[in-house]
Prior knowledge:
- The chain has six helices and nine strands.
- It is an alpha/beta fold.
- It has a single domain, classed as Rossmann fold.
- Helix 2 crosses helix 6 and helix 3 packs across helix 4.
- The C terminus is likely disordered.
Amino acid sequence: MTTPLDALQALGTADQRLAPDLELIEIYTMGGMLKLLWHGTRDADEVVMLLGGAMGGFLGPGKVYHRLGQHLAAQGRAAVHVDYRRPDKLDQSLLDAAAATDLAMRQGGRKFVALGHSFGGAVAVQLAVAVGAACEGVATVATQSAGCEIAEQLHPTPLLLIHGGEDVILPAASSEMVRMIAGYGDYDFVPDADHNFTHHGTSLFERLSAFIDTSFASAPEPDLTPDIDPDSETDLS
């Protein structure tokens, strides 16, 4: 079976260590450049996939992604920020996230948490379904509902949805809809938070790091045969 990383048909790669626990990886493809910021060691057993919105980028809501990456690396875990080749295209962005997960698996990753903001919430949901039992938790912040129609397939993976009451980009009803589709999940409504959780970075970091800890702590040993098919419209289209 063709793996997601193989499906990228990479022309080449380059990497540069930026700090003791931070590495930039560039994967060159005919469809553009996939960029990964990798916190922690390449062979970490527990890995968090950090997925941005439709504009791409690395910072995440409340600029929390870099802080989470540093925190996870200090715990002996890894965090991989995925900067998509085409951040406005869900199918390609899912392939990018799946390829990054595939790369982590090849190097020792066994347990994963998918964390997505805005558009990245849909990527996180679809990635979790594709990865299957190896995904131990899914968290979304200000997610869109489009692309989350398969959320009912997440069960019993722990699910956390966070949304702000002052979000003028995507209403809180989007997260409520995803929770309804899934049929379960913890829903945190933050009345005074905007779409980017501009003034809520610290509280968001604390909530997400606690969720990650709980997800990994309760995880059984996973079956490392991901149900990812690059020819399937549902998974990687």
